[in-house]
Amino acid sequence: EALAQIGSFVILGEEEHRDKLALFAGINDLRFKKQVVPGDVLELELEVTRMRGAVGKGVGTATVDGTVAVSGELLFALTDKK
Q: Which H or E run includes 11?
């Protein structure tokens, strides 16, 4: 969920998408590698790898203390706020 939220932040930060609403559309090849527990500090990274019109894809990683907790590909769609 945190990676999806940071993905929305990245996409909506681009000038051409400022008046849009980012919707979570799916995941591909997501791998959970480490359990995250209360008190852990997540470091999130997401790179948008493809944008075609209103549909995009990003690759994200969440780490705890330098160890990968989860990584995978997120899909999203943009729509008007109305």
A: helix 2-12
